[in-house]
Amino acid sequence: MSNTERSAALSAAIGRTWTDETPWQFLTDLTAIGNRMGGSEGEREAAERVGTAFEDTGLEDVSIDPFEMDEWRRGSSELELRGSTNRSGRSFESIALPYSPSGAETAPFVDAGYGTPAEIDELNVEDRIVVASTTTPEGGRFIHRMEKFGYAIESGAVGFVFVNHTPGQLPPTGALKFGQEAAAIAVGVSKETGTWLREYAENTAGPSAELSVSVEAETVAGESQNVVGRLGPKTDEELFLVAHYDAHDIAEGALDNGCGIATVLAAVRILAAAEDKLTRGVRVVAVGCEEIGLLGAEHLAAAIDHERVHGVLNVDGAGRFRDLVALAHGSETVVDVAESIATETNQPIRTELEPHPFSDQWPFVRAGIPALQLHSDSDDRGRGWGHTHADTRDKVDDRNIREHGILTALLAIELADRELPRLEVNDLADRFREADFEPGMRAADLWPDNWE
Predict the structure, then answer these.
(1) pLDDT at res. 212
(2) What secondary structure letter does DSSP report for 62?
(3) Are 372 and 240 contained in the same domain?
(4) How far apart are CA 31 and CA 389, in angstroms?
(5) Which residues span the domain enclosing 357?
(6) Fewer CB within 10 Å: N-end or C-end of the chain?
(7) Residue 103 and residue 179: Cα distance in Å, rounded?
(8) Which of 220, 235, 270 is at the close of a domain?
(9) Same structural domain, 40 and 113
(10) CA distance 445 to 392
(11) Is the pLDDT of residue 2 over 80?
(12) Does residue 88 sit within a domain?
């Protein structure tokens, strides 16, 4: 698709996006809800607001699709450093990580650094509490919290403390398992707290001490929902445009993923005004429960005939920062699509071919369906404000949502028009092994059975 091929309607819709206040107002309303944790009343209210926004945009057949899930409910948590030589004990603020069970542990603790499997292998973690960072070393892939936790517990640890690498007294949160209760307790603590703990960890130069950690929480039968609509021609194959609208309960969820679903809304408003540019139908889905295990995406993937899914465009992380990142998840064709739109628009889009299992494209990618995930990065490694109390609307720049909404619409048009070859599952498995995903994914019960 070249500039000369754009219809007048598409060009006009792109032009209106620069002054369209609807996505920003939607983000404002969404973040005003507060708690949008999977299965909560706030998530249900958010789904209704998404449905109204979809209908106002002109999507057809808008509906709410409920599904059962295991809802995790937060109680209190406590963390105390005990037995250091110069103090009898000190308590620190902590936040239980979703799907941590209720329980308490008092044990020696070790500093596992970044918490990579290689670092844990070098330590004696048996019957100990592992303290690990939210970030990972430069030069390699980002190792997810679930992998760190799973590997530590599989190696004999009895508890896990996740230390934010971003300063500001911000304990981080994040799920331990995909939608089910974990085998051990875990909490998040601030970078500042982590500095104290590491000074007294059993394997450092400081005096030995014990760590006492307790969590009160429950996992109960619950219900979440996806919000579904469609636009474009009625074709046998459809492009799936998805973004999650849920968030963790400790913040507004503006960056993760309020920006993403607002970006989708901006894109859909463009696509609805230029449906004649679509060669295939587009199914737009706001998915629930991403933060606690991709549950909405799993429900969507299980309910649809995969032969009808042309490809997936997952907007998770777009709209946060200035430059778009296109994660192609093993598809060379998808890389080409992203690069062609970057060239056409003269907008920076960084492409990455490597796949990962930690967003809503995963249930489709592991089945061989090509996917493009739209993200954006700061210059810092890790989540930054995400998954903390500081994930609030004041961190958002409206320009990013507008620009990324335009690029998302153009990418959707191009993806719908292209033939997207299926991914070879054996090739995918090899890619994950080459990137050293296997140990952590197996420990977190994420390695697909058909990849043996």
Answers:
(1) 97
(2) E
(3) yes
(4) 13
(5) 3-70+221-433
(6) C
(7) 19
(8) 220
(9) no
(10) 32
(11) no
(12) yes
Neighbours of 269 (CB within 10 A): 22
Given a contact cutoff of 8 angstroms between Cβ atoms, the answer to whether 146 and 177 are in contact is yes
CATH number, domain containing residue 139: 3.50.30.30
Percent share of the chain, pLDDT over 70: 96
Position 138 scores a pLDDT of: 85
Residues 61 and 78 in one domain: no
- At 196-246, the pLDDT tens digits run 999 999 998 777 789 999 999 999 999 999 999 999 999 999 999 999 999
Contacts of 259 (CB under 8 A, 6+ apart): 27, 317, 318, 319, 320, 396, 400, 401
In a domain, 441, yes or no: no
Of 220, 240, 271, the domain-final residue: 220
Whole-structure pTM over 0.85, yes or no? yes
pLDDT digits (tens, 9 = 90+) for 337-366: 999 999 999 999 999 999 999 999 999 999
Average pLDDT value for the chain: 94
- pLDDT, tens digit, for every residue of 211-222? 999 999 999 999
Whether 35 is covered by a domain: the verdict is: yes
Q: Are residues 306 and 406 in the same domain?
A: yes
Task: State both tokens at 11.
Answer: 């060009």
| The residue type at 217 | A
- Do 314 and 345 sit in the same domain of this protein? yes
Same domain, 351 and 277: yes
What is the mean predicted confidence (pLDDT) over 129-148?
Answer: 92
Residue 26 lies in a domain: yes
Find all residues with CB under 8 Å of 190, minimum gap 6, and list them. 92, 93, 163, 164, 167, 168, 169, 170, 171
Which DSSP string corresponds to 364-412? HHTTT--EEEEEE--SSSS-TTTTSTT--GGG--HHHHHHHHHHHHHHH
Residue 12 is part of a domain; what is its CATH number? 3.40.630.10
Are residue 268 and residue 328 in the same domain, yes or no? yes
Smallest Cα–Cα separation from 326: which of 363, 347, 352? 352
How many degrees, rounded to 5, is the angle at CA 413 between CA 351 and CA 406?
70
Is 3's pLDDT higher than 70?
no
Residue 354 has which token pair? Answer: 């490597």
CA distance 386 to 399: 19
Please give the pLDDT value at position 440.
92
Q: Do residues 103 and 195 both lie within one domain?
A: yes
Distance, in Å, from the CA atom of 296 to the CA atom of 290, rounded to the nearest integer, reads 6
Tokens of 225: 């929902």
**Residue 211, CB-side half-sphere exposure with 13 Å CA sphere:** 33
